Amino acid sequence: MQRSNVFDLGAAHWRKSSYSNASGGDCVEVADGLAGLVPVRDSKRPDGDVVVLSAAAWVPFVRALRSGDLKR
User: Quick check: pTM over 0.90?
Assistant: First the structure.
């Protein structure tokens, strides 16, 4: 059986990362208010794809970004 995860993000309240800037740099937005989930999107493409992380995965993800362990 194939499992499909579909989330209704139509009413999500998106906020821009504090590391984003007004000059159109690498901007990331996250949505609040979804218990146990952290939706992430590119603020320059609000109608584009959304990555949904579990709240448990969010903390190590941010730690890896800050430490430079995740590189382009």
Answer: no
